[in-house]
Write a structure and sequence with these properties.
276 residues; alpha/beta; eight-stranded mixed beta sheet; Rossmann fold; globular
Length: 276
């Protein structure tokens, strides 16, 4: 286990392999770096593979910040990349919340990464446009706070899954019961306070325009993904200068775990096409 000191805590990360090119994987909300195990096993023989636990998650756990934001998470990613002292441009891969963090990073540094892979990519939560100025009237925070105080993170997360499935009719999170169970276990490791802080970061985020981004970007969704999320992924792929969008069958939001071999194959093909 390796930790990187921050001003208000420590960021936990792992490095596997010693290849010249670095791949950095950023997990989804209320999960942790373990969700990238299939990708670590696939890529570590040829690359330096880095996984981290975003603050509030996994082994990083809580920090002293009163509130979180996608911008703060992107600050942490910048700190980690600087600490890694990589001479080559890294390749970045983010899932869900991680895809938001990477979009923020791309908006700040349109050409600093060799390539970006966005799994289960989402630009905002909820993944629909809320008229500016009316966000407080649509806020789920009162109901979420009540649920957290009465039932805890796992039941609150389960309620979110039920509401999405009832709205979309899709499996959404995952088509694999074992993957869903592992996700629920990861959620159970998070405190009520940290769960709320992460949710608020997601809900408050105002996604950036990415038209100036020159970094090759691959967006990957599962066919059981919520339709509004897939539409947001299509927007990302069509907005950046060099974007492409793929949909993998028999998979949901956690597409890298539902179809690990297919996700690894399309990712490896994309990575192989980059000038690194």
């Amino acid at each position: 286990m390796t930790t990187l000191p921050l001003e208000d805590g420590s960021l936990w990360y792992e490095v596997h392999g010693d290849g010249e090119t670095t791949l950095v994987f950023v997990h989804g909300g209320w999960l942790n770096g373990r969700t990238w195990k299939p990708q670590v096993e696939h890529f570590a023989d040829d690359y330096r593979v880095v996984t981290l636990d975003v603050r509030g998650h996994g082994n990083t756990g809580s920090t002293d910040a009163d509130e979180y934001s996608i911008e703060l998470f992107a600050d942490d990613l910048e700190t980690l990349l600087s600490h890694l002292e990589n001479d080559e441009k890294p390749i970045l891969c983010g899932l869900s919340l991680g895809s938001m963090i990477l979009q923020e990073y791309l908006s700040r540094h349109p050409d600093r990464a060799a390539g970006v892979i966005l799994g289960g990519a989402v630009r905002s939560m909820p993944p629909v446009d809320v008229p500016r100025g009316l966000e407080p009237f649509f806020s789920p925070m009162p109901a979420l706070s009540t649920s957290l105080s009465m039932t805890g993170p796992q039941s609150t997360f389960r309620s979110l899954l039920y509401s999405i499935r009832a709205t979309t009719g899709e499996q959404w999170l995952s088509v694999d019961p074992d993957v869903r169970a592992a996700a629920m276990e990861a959620v159970g490791e998070i405190s009520r306070t940290e769960f709320r802080k992460v949710f608020e970061a997601l809900f408050r985020y105002d996604p950036p325009e990415l038209a100036d981004v020159g970094t090759p970007t691959l967006v990957v969704h599962g066919d059981q993904e919520a339709p509004p999320v897939k539409r947001q992924g299509q927007v990302i792929a069509s907005t950046v200068e060099d974007g492409r969008h793929l949909v993998l069958s028999e998979s949901g939001h956690l597409v890298n775990q539902d179809r690990p071999r297919a996700f690894n194959d399309v990712s490896a093909k994309f990575v192989g096409s980059l000038a690194v």
